[in-house]
Amino acid sequence: MYRCSNTVIGFLNLLTLLSSIPIIGGGLWMAKSKTSCESFLQTPLLIIGFVILILSLAGYIGSCFHVAWVLWLYLAVMFLLIAALMALTVFGFIVTNRGGGVEVPGRIYKEYHLENYSPWLRKRLKDPRYWETIRTCILGSKTCAKIAYWTPFDYLQRDMSPIQSGCCKPPTACSYAVDATTLAQDADCYRWNNAPNLLCYKCDSCKAGVLETMRIDWRKLSILNIVMVILLICIYSVGCCAYQNTKRAQTDNPYGQNRMSKVRPRWDFYWYVKQHSIV
To answer: Does the keyword Translocase belong to this entry (predicted)?
Structure first.
């Protein structure tokens, strides 16, 4: 029973090792895909998949075959992984603390403003090449094509995703009447174009809609990270027990047995014997 932790940690690492295979496969499939949207997650998926694979393999070998140094390395990397996930989770909550949509009178959907998001997120979209990749992604997903045939009544009764609200239409407050050319309007009103490949992709509202989608996804990922950290801490605790059992197994001594075959007498023992022998 004292080596039960080795069996448990070996079984858990076998499951995580098997789970890493579809993660790596998904990353390799995205690498070969021509759709630019999928290239965003390609590198993170491959890194996560290979880290889980190597870590699980080390934990399985160390616990089941009683290789103490491998299990020690497994615990060290596991500790770093837990620390990294905790730091990433805290950073994610800080970055996504700002943002959210603004209610539009008479509409169900919300609109989004770029200045409401954190500077770190806004900085991510300043690179023209990065934004061009995102725009290609939105075009390939046909997000705006789904609302191309909406009637004015649909805009009053139906909801939109953040990207649809920011990229597929001009801001609701815009006016395109003949006598509205002299009015002071949002800059996005002048960036709007009816062409299907243009629309409002150059608008700040489109960038804000993308950031809102990222913010929502990051919040979900942060919650998942919390669950993973708790799970990894439990596995780490079992791994520590397995490491102690592995070290004990290498001594070939049963648990609880006194390992000292010889005990060196204290210095005063010889003095005591000498005095009593004289008497």
So the answer is: no
Are 206 and 167 in contact by the 8 Å Cβ rule? The answer is yes
Specify the amino acid at residue 157. Q
Residue with tokens 């009015």: 183
* In contact, 132 and 227? CB cutoff 8 Å: no
pTM of this structure: 0.73
What DSSP assignment string belongs to 214-272? HHHHHHHHHHHHHHHHHHHHHHHHHHHHHHHHHHHHHTT--TT----S--PPPHHHHHH
The dihedrals phi and psi of 196, each to the nearest 5 degrees, come to: -60, -30
Tens of pLDDT, residue by residue over 29-45, are 655 654 445 555 566 66
Q: CA 116 to CA 87: how far, in whole Å? A: 24
Q: Which two tokens stand for residue 131?
A: 């934004």
Strand, helix or coil for residue 23: helix
Span 41-80, pLDDT tens digits: 566 667 777 887 888 888 877 777 777 788 788 888 888 8
Residue 22: C-alpha distances to residues 15, 25, 46, 49, 208 (Å): 12, 5, 10, 8, 33
Name the nearest CA neighbour of 239 among 81, 57, 55, 59: 59
Kindly list the distances between the CA atom of residue 214 and the CA atoms of 211, 225, 238, in Å, as whole numbers in the listed order.
5, 16, 35
Is residue 112 scored above 90 in pLDDT? yes
Above 50 in pLDDT, residue 261? Answer: no
